[in-house]
Design goal:
Elements (H helix, E strand, L loop, with lengths): L5 H18 L3 H17 L17 H4 L10 H6 L6 H8 L8 H20 L7 H25 L4 H6 L15 H19 L8 H13 L2 H24 L3 H4 L7 H42 L5 H10 L5 H23 L11
Helix pairs in contact: 2-11, 2-13, 6-7, 6-10, 9-13, 11-13, 11-15
């Protein structure tokens, strides 16, 4: 080979290496693929065919939306609201832009309307207009009653919540969980407002914060990444466990004396599972528990007649639902498989007597 061709040769090798590395999964998928391939080579076994965990799409807004009555003012009453300084508020709502308000902005408008109306009524500004006074009293009551449904539409029934739990997200890695504390605070704030609405407390005063929270959800897909992580881990744990369960420990470790092959299994357990896979599983488990509890606090505070949401929530986030149950069962199965193999070969980890 002439010196003239060496640079071309090395460039081709580098290109091939880049192409090969691009074909390898990265993140949690790559982590699990490496772990499973090592187990399968050592055991010379293929995993059993399993029923894969499925994360289904968050229900569509139209299937979640709770009915909210449209209460008309009428021109005569509209001009009468001048005595309550409410004409501008109602005009903005009835404008072309106002009619296209998101559910969260609509919620903020209804709060403003109720506050203005109650202030006007308490000041007895409509004393000379008994009909208008009675109408404003009634419409304020009806609007108060509709606030929980409107708040549901702005939160659990919103497109932003669907995006937060999107099925197109990649399985969560450690970096994706960085804003979990912020999300816990967000869901707690949503739950607190929901309790105010359903318990008949004073009207919420932080509707602007709701807009910020909804915007944060719109930028985040952490919920979807966590659920995809659970599905990935559940399937991978079951496949890995099925390989370990097929290992003949009597042949691998006659008289419980580990040979070279057994020590290789132990190296995979220690260096690959213990140092790389298990920390990711622990992070995922903690994050999942925190998210499940945070969403539960909101759903408990904001009940609604929504079969579509109930079915989705039961399937994915309820502790007794299939995704959560299969995830915990897969972890237990995988742990038992390793414990059995290591015990049969007298290689189980021993605690440090020094404490």
């Amino acid at each position: 080979m002439t010196p003239f061709r060496k640079p071309v040769y090395f460039i081709l090798l580098a290109g091939i290496a880049l192409l090969c590395s691009a074909c390898q999964p990265s993140g949690p998928e790559g982590l699990w693929q490496d772990y499973q391939q090592r187990l399968e080579r050592l055991a010379d076994q293929q995993p059993e065919v399993i029923e894969t965990a499925v994360v289904s799409r968050y229900p569509r807004s139209r299937d979640l939306r709770q009915p909210v009555p449209e209460l008309r003012t009428g021109m005569r009453r509209y001009f009468g609201l001048a005595q309550c300084d409410m004409m501008g508020l109602v005009s903005a709502r009835n404008s072309s832009l106002g009619r296209l308000q998101t559910a969260s902005l609509r919620f903020a408008y209804e709060l403003d309307f109720i506050r203005h109306a109650e202030t006007c009524l308490e000041a007895d500004r409509l004393a000379e207009r008994e009909d208008l006074d009675a109408w404003l009293t009634e419409i304020s009551r009806l609007k108060r009653e509709s606030l929980p449904a409107l708040y549901w539409n702005a939160t659990l029934g919103s497109q932003e919540m669907a995006g937060f739990f999107t099925t197109t997200a990649s399985p969560a890695d450690t970096g994706a969980l960085a804003d979990l504390t912020t999300l816990e605070t967000l869901f707690d704030r949503l739950a607190r407002t929901a309790r105010q609405l359903t318990d008949g407390e004073a009207l919420p005063t932080d509707s602007g914060v709701l807009e910020q929270d909804i915007a944060h959800l719109a930028r985040s897909d952490t919920g979807g990444r966590l659920l995809q992580g659970l599905a990935l881990a559940t399937d991978a744990l079951n496949r890995s466990a099925s390989v370990l369960e097929q290992v003949d420990s009597a042949r691998l470790c006659p008289n419980q004396r580990p040979g070279e092959q057994a020590r290789r299994f132990n190296n995979v357990f220690t260096a690959i599972y213990g140092e790389r896979v298990q920390p990711w599983l622990a992070d995922l488990d903690r994050a999942n528990r925190r998210l499940v509890q945070a969403v539960a606090r909101l759903t408990d505070a904001l009940p609604a007649d929504s079969p579509a949401f109930s079915a989705w929530y039961q399937a994915h986030l309820h502790p007794d639902g299939p995704l959560q149950q299969h995830w915990h069962a897969a972890m237990q199965r995988h742990t038992r498989a390793w414990q059995q193999l290591l015990q049969d070969c007298d290689m189980q980890p021993r605690s440090d007597p020094s404490g």
